[in-house]
Amino acid sequence: MPKSFRELDVWQAAMGLAKIVYGLTDSFPRRELFGLVAQMRAAAVSIPVNIAEGQGRNTRAEYRQFVGIAVGSANELVTLGELAQELGYGQERPWEAFWVELDRVRRMRLRLRRSLGPVARADPAARAVNRQP
After folding, report:
1. What letter would DSSP give residue 59?
2. Count of CB atoms within 10 A of residue 43's CB?
3. Residue at 41 is within a domain
4. CATH no. for residue 92?
5. For every one of its 133 residues, what pLDDT tens digit does the chain have, with 9 covering 90 and above?
6. Cα angle for residues 87, 103, 4 (degrees, 5° grid)
7. Cβ distance 81 to 99 under 8 Å?
8. Kind and range of the H or E element at 85?
9. Which domain holds residue 35?
10. Residue 42 lies in a domain
11. Residue 102 near residue 43, CB atoms below 8 Å
């Protein structure tokens, strides 16, 4: 495992995606500054932030949880991007770069999540014992 999250290809790609989002949203209407601009930027930044925070946690389960949060942020970014593009915000070339990089980051992040192993499941017998008075 890398010594630092900065060595992770997925973190580096997610940082690149965040930069693309910042550039893309610069051209959005000013009235969207506290709407789509803020939400898209927050979702984009959340991806590398959660990967970094997870990599610094004590267990694989915690790491996996934070990568899962990054998955949610990427899905949020898809939705926000689709809405913004349908509203006609941004320019075509930056949108192309956005979709290509977002797809790349999503695939990398899912591979990272799978590499961390399956989600630990609670033993049903243990849960039954814990429910008894």
Report:
1. S
2. 21
3. yes
4. 1.20.1440.60
5. 557 899 999 999 999 999 999 999 999 999 999 999 999 999 999 999 999 999 998 899 999 999 999 999 999 999 999 999 999 999 888 899 999 999 999 999 888 888 888 765 554 444 444 444 4
6. 125
7. yes
8. helix 60-86
9. 5-115
10. yes
11. no
